[in-house]
Model the fold of this input.
Amino acid sequence: MKRKGRMMTGMLAAAMLFACAAPANTPQTEAPQTNPDEITAPLTGEGAEEHASEPLHYVPAPKIEGSSLYVKKVENMPDDFILGMDASSVNAEEQSGVRYRNFAGEEQDVFLTLAESGVNTVRVRVWNHPYDADGNGYGGGNNDIDKAVEIGKRVTQYGMKLLVDFHLSDFWADPGKQMVPLAWKDMKIEEKTEAVYQFVKESLEKLRDAGVDVGMVQIGNETNGALCGEKIWFNIQYLMGAGSKAVREVYPSALVALHFANPEKAGSYAGYAKKLAYYNLDYDVFASSYYPFWHGTLENLAAVLSEIAETYGKKVMVMETSYAFTTEDTDFSGNTIGEGGGIVKSYPFTVQGQANEVRDVIDTVVNHTTNGIGVVYWEGTWITVGGSSWEENHELWEKYGSGWASSYAAVYDPNDAGKYYGGSAVDNQAMFDRYGKPLESLRVFNLSRYGNEVELLPDAVEDVNLYVDLNGRIELPETVNAVMTDDSKQPVPVQWNVTEADYEKMYAGGVATYDITGDAGGLEAHCYVNMIEYNFLENYSFESGEEAPWQVTDNAKADELYVERKVTDSKTGEYHYHFWSAAANSVDFVLTQPVENLPAGTYKFTISIMGDDGGDTDIYAFAIVDGAEVGRAPLKLSGYNNWNTATVQEIVVGEGQTVTVGIAVRCSGAGSGAWGKIDDALLNSVS
Ligand code: CA
Done:
């Protein structure tokens, strides 16, 4: 902070003035659960200014040459910008038989591979005691402090810093749960505050004694208004303050971070930061998770973090982000993101899409966020343990804790881990493939700094959906829309794998859908050919927004009778035909469309309606051929968005005859306030 100079000091002074006006021990918004006078405040208020942290002293490696990854340069990236990887599960993975490799496919220490790829910080979570009474691990890497020491030594060996993530729980802590460690279960807040201080202190001393280079310590994980079983800020701040104090004592040059999630929740971060300032909490970094599937836009992320940086003089960063490189699951334990959606913006689920997401997050924090100091990727090393079945993997997950939770976790977290224990839900978001070989996307950490604007190639292609009337012509498109390696979209030429015999089959097959594959710049393209019945009506779904060529005869002067645009009230599309009248007996109209020059044959007419309050209704679809009604099908109103559909069958039309199809609607009796919507009229040939 000293490096940032005068402006920051002013900010701090302002924050301290505020703190003086509202002392930490007299909260105004939350009732203390315990007498504050009995608690020794972990902070005296001199705070962060006294504990200015050292810069990383990180000398970036030269650019990796020859990568096929497209990376747009992130301008202005400071040398000491934190490019982090959470690798908490590495030990459990290795014990389970995972062998990590280098880019050449040879076995190599995964931490060396990370360092070679531009990662300068490794994050590791620490749980207090993730084991049952018999010593069986809860899973998720069984990450206690001893695991952190082992990982920390390897991280330090390769010149990276360790970022320690204290959950202050025996297992996963996130916005959904912040469970107190079993050993602290019955503690009052004073005792718990002391326990946090001792635990963080002793844990960090273990790391220090092992010579681990700790660059940052976070007190709590995604602490959205809860920590260690405490749910009011008055208590939470004591715990955070105790942890912070321990960090200052053991690693005075390390940054103290607090970590939150859900930047998309308007005002939430500003609210947390205000609380922290009110209690004059001693911390350096306000960190956020950013999962693009859930956490809003990057613009919003930058705005909410910048507001805190500018108001309170804090550093800010992204503590967790990730993206899927495939929809495939490799460990028989279902993935959070993958098949069935979750795709964000235009990043496809590809190695390049994953890299683009990370690059854009880095760019946002470097160039669009005030005091942005880093981005950490979450669990890029958590891949399948390699078994060929769920059972085989389950044995390893249970034994070594390499899945997200083992069955043993039930004693601590019966409702979640105890029920849904299993493997990795993020193996498709790792930056290593199932064999432990790094994906090219891992090099985004090195290449963001320099840029690697190689030749643009198509990275993913959009499926095409073609609708062809049974009496129409199938014309496959000559191009398909591709997402390019730089995340732009453009059409690329496509060669479809289709023969004359395929066309004949599609023309002869009636109503059906066919999947035609093709080659678009080396990528597989799909064109779904949907053979549909020909509709002889125009403006059949009112999507032109006009009434024509429909004709309406309003027999009783309804108050409202028109084509309406309202997606939620349409059966399909955005428009439908709307009616309403306040007075009884004033809904009485006929909506028709005449069709000339129909080929001779047999037809059917279908139309749909919904609505209510019609009283005694007389509603029906009908067809008239050369002035004579040939068929009628009844309809009714049965409530909002409860569509009723009727079909007039067997409309026989001879050469040169004119057909008129339509719907008659009459609401009488108690039909005051009758209303409804009409949509999707179809006149199809049946022979
Ligand atoms: Ca999985």
Notes: The pocket of calcium ion is lined by residues 329, 331, 333-335, 423-425, 427 (CB under 6 Å).
